[in-house]
Amino acid sequence: MSQCALDQPSLADRRSAPGAQHIMIRLIPLARAAIVVLALVGGVAALAASPAHRGGKLRLLATSSGGTIDPQVNYTLKFAQVYVSIYDGLVSFKKASGTESVKVVPDLAEAIPTPTDSGKTFVFKLRRGIYFSNGREVTVDDVQASFRRIFKVLSPTAGTFYNQIVGASACIKTPATCTLLGGVVTDAKANTVTFHLLKPDAEFLDKLAFAHAVILPADASPHDVGVLPIAGTGPYMIASYDSLKQLRLVRNPYFKVWSEDAQPDGNADEIDYDFGLAAEDAVTAIANNQADWMFEEIPADRLNELGTRYAKQLVITPLTANYYLPMNVHLAPFDNIKVRQAVAFAIDRKAAVKLIGGANLATPSCQMLPPGIPGYEPYCPFTKNPGATWSEPDLEKARQLVKESGTAGMKVVFVTSDVPIGRALGTYMQGVLNDIGYDATVKVLAQSLQLTYIQNTNNKVQISLFPWYQDYPQPSDFLNVLLSCASFHPQSDASINVSGACDPALDAQMAHALDLSLSDQNAANAAWAAIDRKVTDAAYMASVFIPKHLDFISKRVGNFTFSSQTYFVPALAWVQ
Amino acid sequence: MILMLIRRLLQMLFVMFGISVLAFAIFFATPGADPSARIAGRNATPETLIQVRHDFGLDRPLPVQYALLMKRLFITGDLTSFVNRGQEVIPEIVASTPVTLSLVLGAALIWIAAGGLIGVLAAATRGSWLDRGLMIAGMIGVSMPVYWLGSVINLFAQSRLHDSALFSWVPPLGYIAFGDDPLGWFKTLVIPWCTLAVLYAGLYGRVLRGALIESLQEDYVRTARAKGLSESRILLRHALRCSLISVVTLFGLDFGALVGGGALLAEVVFSLPGIGKLTFDALQTLDLPVIMATVIYASFFVVASNAVVDIAYGFIDPRVRDA
Amino acid sequence: MAVTDLGADTIAPAMTKTPRDSEGVWSIAWHKLARDRLAVVGALIFAAIVLAAALAPVYATYVAHTDPFHSNINGEIVIDGKPVAVLASSTEGLGLGQTPIGPTWRGAYLLGADDQGRDVAARMFYGGRASLLVSFGATAICIVLGAALGITAGFFGGLIDSITSRVLEILWAFPVYLFAISLSIVTISQGLTIGWVTIEASSLLLPTLIIGIIYTPYIARPVRGQVLALRRTDFVLASIGIGCPTGRILLRDIFPNIAPSLIVMVPLMVALNMLTESALSFLSIGVQAPNASWGTIIQDGQGLLYTRPLVAIAPGIAIVITVLALNVLGDGMRDALDPRSSARAGTAAP
Q1: ipTM score here?
Q2: Does residue B196 fall inside a structural domain?
Q3: Shared-domain flag, residues A347 and A488
Q4: Which residues of A touch C123 (CB under 8 A)?
């Protein structure tokens, strides 16, 4: 089971029934009558590269770089958004908007194979005539070397996504001499690569579509390259990278479109990604048409200005994501269920929504599952007049629960990140915790540090802010991944079950629901809904709101494409 | 003389060593700054984490870590960032230096010129309203927090009055290298220069005024007056020269301290990618190699400029040589 | 920084009087100061600010009727009989974001609200409190520590002087802002635990200690220089010669003669420390929530600069006025007490 830890969305892992190639996703249209997605010129369906709009330079802004330029090591959304247009895997997620973007389509492979040997063997036939940006043709040796390299460079997902490949355990133990013997077998004459797995894995194709499974030249350095670009097969190549200043992409001269779905041609001739500008100044730059798009969240005080004067340059996209407040069930006072429920009762979700920009950018939520996930049934126990939806906080009930728990007056530290919404929610929650009877303080950590900090039980984090974005649109990604015993690793920076909830009965229930989903989807949904209610009542994590994504682009940008995997797709945007 | 020079240089090296140890102690003894998980990436397995800790020598005893870091910083020069893996630290610092130097030197030119003007005017008209007015204006400048002044100026220059004739030439925040576009370089720096200059101009004006007034009471000035020289000639030709010593001393100290990190706030507010901003960004993410390098570099500058000032003072004022 | 070393020869002759005459010195200085109108104005302004800060709870309760530390996101106040939202959600265009109420120029929300709906004016009163407490505390620490170190090094000489001087040199050379930032970053997250003493991360004591420590060399080095010179004067040598115990020499001969320059340093250091504290708070590593200082309010105002700039501008003006008053007072005191000192107002810490 994948355990993708994120503070920003990582790439998706899609569940599909073994043998089936269609997607078992039911995206229920959002029930909320919130703002409609503002589609720009180009509409929801992504238009591929159009000759009329070819050319120009796309200018992107971020406050800092995304880290290493090594696609098999980098685990940030910031760079994943551009890597999808620089590198290719055997398969990849379709480059499209909305629901189409979760489909796995053949990329460097000619077709998606049907697994044999009861789901343990996958045979891929490699396309011919595809070249890296250094002029060399892609061969099956490159594929084999790339998968070995995942282990050699200590890729963060090596041990979790690719550990079921035969020979992987030896590779994890001694990465330097990784051979994946028997796991990745090539046949140069037939031009095929065969994968042998230890166990059947219904998600293997998704893992191959994931960013770290891209195919690189066989002679790429077996260490994290840091700042030295590796050649890729996509429409763009890295011309230069200075982690303090700029990442510059230009067209890959050897690129020819082989699959419009998997890897369309890019529109702009060049993409300049500039680092170092603060978010407020980036907004000003885009408003002055000095830049085209910014990665960071729009500062709250500019929202009104943008929403009125620059409304046509804003794109609002609903997300299946949720802002949670995990509460550590192993630490006082949150080891007491009454306290956790008190917190959930006391949060004024309307105020929290205001802090992120108002009802058009977020909707209050009480339960673990967000709308749009199979198994979602509106449920809100933590409000005055409990029922299906949240109406207002119940401070009296909260104070009552705290008094009953006998923990009033205790010191509580709320750990949040230093992004604007993190600080704002931190300040607000401090007031809430004080209101219900605690002595609360806020600890603000840099965003890059906060996520690992709250996962490590050594840090004794009582309550924190935890935005969670779907890896894949299934209830298990919100329930199993976040609340099962298998996701709880004490004393490790990688323990995505932040609240530390470990209930064997709950685990059994979730396993049962997972099994059900292979045979009877309706029964599975009902089972997941029941689990959702159960964990919501236990208040392991208090749910605050479901955010929408806001993008601000300059006047000249067209064909804005929003993939549910990597969000904005720069390659498809045109600037003239 | 030579003895003094050698002694001063030895002292300089000793201080730098002390600072590097102090900085290392502050940062590497920090709890909760375990970099291995950040390097390994999210969701890494425990084996991966151990591997990474070994690669970076984080499982060795502290003195060994210090020695390793110093070696990579000075001898082999291949110290790399923990956060932006692979990005070498020394080239980053070298690349940021011209920005900080441009900022500080340009501002220094302006504040020395302004301070000189203020000081001379005030001394020439001492006791008058002009003198008092200038001193008060200078004091107000000195009392302002630079980051506040900078962000208020940004508010007008970048946003509120950006479209007006006064500020439409203002480029977006950031830095343009002189080599790329000299006019652009100038435009990005003019406002930061003036902001920093406001802080120091008043101070230098006051120091110069005080020194001038003192020199004007010296015997040689009385002699010059008796000889019939005009007041302004006395002021500018004779008194000014002697007064410059105290200004020069002051400037040496201020310059070193500014380049060493005082300009940090100005760089952060104006988004100039200099040493100060580099340090600040690294402090946010606890990027230990970068922090170590910038702190040591900054202290080197302060120590060196102090040493230069002391040595220069020794040349100018023989009384100090034997101290 | 303009607080330069005092060389051995800068002891004003008028100061080297025996304790019997010291009262005359002080009353002379006092009268001189009282005649310096500018310094008096500075002192009065500063006193007014301190008074206002002390009365912060009175303002919050009786004038503003709010708790300036409690978020008030969904709150409403009544203006001219009509209810007005403290954080008004936008209804134009796409209806995104909300705008805090602007200055009402009345008791409630005199200067408007910040992004959590809190009364900015009330916060500024409390902010002044925190800023003044930290600045005074840090000044006390650095003067006491600095004087102690300087006297020890200057009087005892020898090995003690060597070691102390070396330590002071290192501390002095460490760029002040980087030193403060380094110490703050390290202690702000966990607080400080030395032995059985624990200081919480949100305590005002942390920035006070840090700022006090980093400015100790600013006092210690001049004091050391002065004491070195004093030690060679006739009357001290005489006291040593007749066998006076060290404690008495320090108390009766040394200390009264360095006291004037120390006193001159007080307002100047308070001003310098205030600027440093506000810079650290602006960088979010000084005063921590739930406390507010003028620097933290300016930081809050950064996120509102485009819509409600007063939130950032007002605390800055408060800082300028306070520091200016202190500088003017410090200059006056220097002129009255220790005219040869090169301690200058406006040690321009950016």
Answers
A1: 0.83
A2: yes
A3: yes
A4: none
List, as one string, the DSSP characters of A230-293. ---SSSEEEEEEETTTEEEEEE-TT---S-TTTSPPPSSSEEEEEE---HHHHHHHHHTTS-SE
Does the structure show a pLDDT above 80 at C167?
yes
Domain that holds residue C234: 42-50+126-291+315-338
- Which CATH number fits the domain that encloses residue C210? 1.10.3720.10
**A69 domain residue, yes or no:** no
Least confident span in A8-12, A376-380, B113-117, B268-272: A8-12
Total number of domains in chain C: 1
Q: For residues C188 and C192, what is the distance between their CA atoms, to the nearest angstrom? A: 8
Number of domains forming the structure of chain A: 2
pLDDT band for position B316 (50/70/90)? low
pLDDT tens-digit readout, B78-87: 777 767 767 7
Burial of residue A495 (number of CB atoms within 10 Å: 0-12, 13-18, 19+): buried
Chain C residues whose C-beta is within 8 A of a chain A C-beta are 69-71, 73-74, 87, 89-90, 92-99, 115-116, 189, 200-202, 284, 288-290, 302-308
Distance between CA atoms of residues A85 and A60, nearest Å: 15
* Domain assignment of residue B258, yes or no: yes
Q: Is position A460 within any domain?
A: yes
Q: Is residue A22 part of a domain?
A: no
- Return the residue in B83, B84, B93, B160 with the most chain A beta carbons within 10 A, the one to mutate for interface testing: B84
Range of the domain at A401: 321-548
Q: Which chains have at least 3 CB atom pairs separated by less than 8 Å from chain A?
A: B, C
CATH code for the domain of A427: 3.10.105.10
Kindly list the distances between the CA atom of residue B80 and the CA atoms of A228, B77, B94, C295, in Å, as whole numbers in the listed order.
13, 9, 14, 34
Q: Which residues of chain A have pLDDT under 70?
A: 1-49
Please report whether residue C77 resides in a domain.
Answer: no
**How many alpha carbons lie under 13 Å from residue C322 in its C-beta half-sphere?**
32
Say if the Cβ atoms of C95 and A359 lie within 8 Å: yes
Would you call C186 and B26 a contact, using CB atoms and an 8 Å cutoff?
A: yes
pLDDT tens-digit map of A216-262: 999 999 988 888 999 999 999 999 998 888 999 999 999 999 999 99
Distance (Å) from the alpha carbon of C276 to chain B's nearest alpha carbon: 9
Task: Say whether residue B161 is in contact with chain C using an 8 A CB cutoff.
Answer: no
The reply to whether residue B84 touches residue A175, judged by beta carbons under 8 angstroms, is no
pLDDT (tens digit per residue) in C272-311: 999 999 999 988 888 887 789 999 999 989 888 888 999 9
Name all chains with 3 or more CB-CB pairs below 8 Å to chain C.
Answer: A, B
Q: What is the CATH number of the domain that holds A198?
A: 3.40.190.10
Say how many domains are in chain B. 1
- Domain assignment of residue A314, yes or no: no
